[in-house]
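Example record

One chain of 472 residues, shown exactly as stored in the release files.
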Amino acid sequence: MARTRTTKKLAQRIDLNYFKRPTPLKRAKLGLSILLPALALAWIAWLVLAKNTSVYSSGRMAEAHAVLANDCAACHVQKAGVFSQKAEDSACLSCHDGPIHHHVATKQVACAQCHNEHRGRINLLAASNENCSQCHSDLKANGGTLNYANAILSFSDGHPEFAVVRAQGGSKPADPGTIKLNHALHMKLIRRGPTGPLVQLQCGNCHRPAAAPADMTYGDAKYVAASTTYKASDELLPVKQESLPPHDLSSGRELMAPVKFATACASCHLLTFDKHFDEGVPHDKPEVVHAFLVTKFTQYIAAHPGDVRVVRDPSRDLAGKAPQPEVRILTPAQWVAERTADAEQLLWRKTCIQCHVLSVGGASVNAAVPTAPSVLPVVAAANTTVKWMPHAKFDHQAHTGFTCISCHTQALTSTLNTDVMMPGIATCQTCHAPGPDHAESRCFECHTYHDWPKRKEITPTFNLPALKHGGR
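Predicted structure tokens for this chain:
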């Protein structure tokens, strides 16, 4: 008789409790589910006992705050038994003050809104453009003045052209300086002195940062060592500090120092005055030059009394004037007065006016009209501009890898001292633009937010970590 296989009979053979039987895999899962939480609890307990709060941190601190990485309470002030989620302004101000930059600001911005921590070793000063545009996207609505532009979102969006090169009333700006200089001529091969060799000047021969040593290639040590009756500050225009000063101290290499005759011009532009001497007059005021000439000629005629006998030189006869006698016998005083007058005519009308603006009684001195021997000219103030962009901070030291004419292209073609050599915004935007392949272009790069001169002195409250833990 054949055996009958039914579903019911087959089901009776299956052990319905098979899933309850322990297996190696089940034992491993159970062990891990107990061991891992136990290890986690032990790790947290160890951190608590060791007072290590790094497990609660959102990320690494910036370099300026790295020493506070394990001291959360320094910034996250404890309130009612719990820590505040955000760093409080009171915690920031307990170490350093940050006075707001504008007296008409309509909103109070929290420190952490612009200076975000726990993002690694970053520069906390690098605030985003969005923080600045809260006000500068609509200055009129935010109570600001409209001297420049109402809406500035970033350096590449809405920023106006630099005021130093922006046309005013249809005319381009002019350099207020009075020193006559043909940049285009000096940028080409030029003869060094009347009979000297051809030389190629470099920008650095004349223009150097204040902290850098002077390039004496075309200078004269005698003029460097000589004292003058005028001060360097007398030749400079007052700096109009219309922006806030930077937080860090000046290194002396941010701006170019004014060009000095002694270090940049003296070896080519000689101040010789008479064939009897191989030295030049002082680079000083006309009254100082006059006293120097009188002294020099007086000393000379005392040592050479025979020179009071003056023989006529036909080459010095002037058209329209009666020729001098063939031989004249002068007194020492007359000889000194005559030689001094001749030397001053040479200096005022030929040498000094090459670079300076001279005037007598309000009238300009020129090469065609001689001045009265008894009247000394007045030299116009140089009016040298030290800081061309008073609304921003700039550092030449950060741009030392670039040639000067990369930015100051006008120097190659400028022939007038009234030409402004400063670059426009398009030149800066070539490098300073958004994106990883460009230099930093956010607002903080050129502008300062806090008015640091108004900061308050802070009373220190923190101890060094080594002192805080008993020196262990």
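Notes: The mean pLDDT is 86.
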